[in-house]
Fold:
Amino acid sequence: MNKSIPYWNPYLETLSRESLEKLQLKKFRRILKWTYTRSKFHRALYEKVGLIPDDIKSLDDVRLVPKVEKSMMRPVQRKDPFPYGDALCVPLEDVTSFRQTSGTTGQPVYQADSWRDWEWWSECWATLLWAQGYRPDDRVFLPFGYNIFVAFWAAHYASEKIGCETVPGGVLDTPSRILKIVEIKATAMMATPTYVLGMADVARKKLGINPAKDLGIKRITCAGEPGALVPSTKKRMEDAWGAKVFDHAGATEIGAWGFECACQPGALHINEAMFLAQVEDLDTGEILSEPGAKGKLVITALDRLAQPCVRFDSKDIVELSNEVCECGRTYRLLPGGVIGRADDITKVKGVLLAPSAIEDVVRSFPGLGNEYEVIVEKHGDVDHILIRVEVDDEAMSNSQELEAKLKNQLRVKTNLGYQIELHKLGSLPRYEVKAKRFKDLRKEQE
Structure:
């Protein structure tokens, strides 16, 4: 691959909208027929509504296909062909990769992939890494403990696929990972936004290393949390490391479906040659098409065969755009990327609250640390929001002024009032993988 070419797959990434939609329809009809023929789980869903694959003649017809939620997958697993059960579409001996979801919202879901599927995963990731400027002369460090979660496994193989020297840093602790970056002169890395900021703190405070000046990291790819497209969080990471920070979106059950390109448009490209993404109104279930409309992402992995993902309710809240990115890709953009999760976006005092809006405010204040917690409770019949933030010594000396400014900005951005607790740096919980900063305790109080 010529490293001066901006696209991993120039043909697919610059298809006209008409050609792209023809390709998506062809692929969708193929995967629908595959699941109808081979998956007991999917066949039962389709027969329940009287649907056959030939009913889908246009992309508008796709809405007729029943959606799948993670909760629907749990009952059909842990039976023969063990452990995948009725959703498996290939012989068990064709399965070469086992992954599972984190189980943070219930019993984990097992994900089966064939070798062909794993090559597809790698191709999806190669597309996004190349779009973010990764090239064969990069030395990529992965400060992450790979295990049964998909995490950065596919990123590792895609990094090798495009020719990068790829260095796993799984079993090392944080200081050792930082010193390894120094030792090998790594140029790029991948981690959650929480861990990117945490590594910078450890480098400065425990090792006396300034990542922006003393390390040679040029680009960082983030996943697992929406922080890399939250403006204040992106700025914190880029300032801390002196590097460009890029976002990516994906899931165990779906694949690597979205990426921010090197132009950093403040949005994710949908990898539309590999996925069919629809945005559904949260209240009515109507498929939205107007720019600016926010809704829930329902997505199909068009080429994943062993355990297919057809019309999967991701619970991710996104916003549509018709803007064209200056990178030249024709893939649609989602401004702000994943704005939040349908499970997390909740009404407080009758107002819709997205945790990412709180993050953008908190991370924009100098003097506040990288960690914070949001706790929503009921006091009697009234909703109450508490935010715990870490504050450095200088800012703590003006705590009343800081607290007043923070409350004011939060009210302006979210139309809600907050109680603020100020804590010393290092006193709140730290996270290496996905952070759990937003806690809605109201259901527990019922």
In short: The two ends are 59 Å apart (CA to CA). The chain has a mean pLDDT of 93.
